[in-house]
Design goal:
With 170 residues, the chain is of the alpha/beta class. It has six helices and six strands. The chain has helices at residues 16-25, 62-71, 88-97, 106-111, 115-129, 155-166; strands at residues 6-9, 30-33, 41-43, 48-50, 78-82, 101-103. The strands form two sheets. It has a four-stranded parallel sheet with strand order 1-2-5-6. The radius of gyration is 18 Å and the shape is globular. The structure holds flavin mononucleotide (FMN). Residues 8, 35-36, 53, 56, 60, 82-85, 104-107, 109 line the site of flavin mononucleotide.
Length: 170
């Protein structure tokens, strides 16, 4: 009997690409990016550790999105994206980065399971409007290997962003 295995990763490995390759070589079928560690808060008056569950927002999508875009086509394995998927646009971004699966937790906890129906409807409407016939057609189209400017994912570009931000500082 063969059991498909997906490994849910933390974003805190020293070399994520190296780990991803090693999981693939060890026989994993899928990688789930990323686990969100539970982070309790401190109550300064009571000096207690307070259980505090923060649901994600779409801004949390950026971390798994960048990593899947970097790994897609380089590591022979399926990707699921989890963290920050709240809308059809988020699902589309996940697919274009190279994910096979977009997972939702916070959105469904906040707005109920029926949100899935609305997101699927929005997804179909977007695909019709932009003349996509399948998800396969878009998968990986925004991965680092596919975009016109691969350096947009890299540190050199980050320096450029920081320099352009300087002029907006008081
Ligand atoms: C209440 C709650 C319970 C969770 N329990 C688990 C769990 O048991 N195992 C797991 O891998 N992830 C668990 N997660 C993490 C989610 O599966 C998901 O990876 C994370 O919330 C990020 O996705 P989101 O932005 O859609 O919330 C849990 C998340 C929440 C909010």
């Amino acid at each position: 009997m063969k059991i498909p295995i997906a490994v849910k990763l933390s974003p805190f490995f020293t070399s994520l690409p190296n780990m991803a390759r090693r999981f693939a070589a060890a026989g994993a079928n899928g990688l789930v990016l990323f686990n969100r560690f539970y982070q309790p808060d401190f109550d300064l008056e009571q000096l207690e550790v307070v259980p505090n569950l923060n649901l994600s927002t779409s801004a949390d999508l950026r971390l798994p999105l960048s990593w899947i875009a970097l790994l897609y086509g380089r590591v022979p394995i399926d990707f699921a994206l989890t963290s920050g998927v709240h809308t059809a646009e988020d699902v589309l971004k996940a697919m274009m980065a190279g994910a096979n699966v977009a997972m939702l937790t916070s959105e469904l906890l906040a707005n109920g399971i029926s949100r899935v129906r609305d997101i699927l409807k929005d997804l179909e409407a977007w695909m019709v409007e932009h003349e996509y016939e399948s998800i396969e057609q878009m998968r990986g189209s925004m991965s680092q290997q596919s975009v016109a400017v691969p350096a947009a994912f890299e540190r050199a570009n980050y320096m450029k962003v920081l320099n352009s931000f300087d002029s907006r500082l008081p």
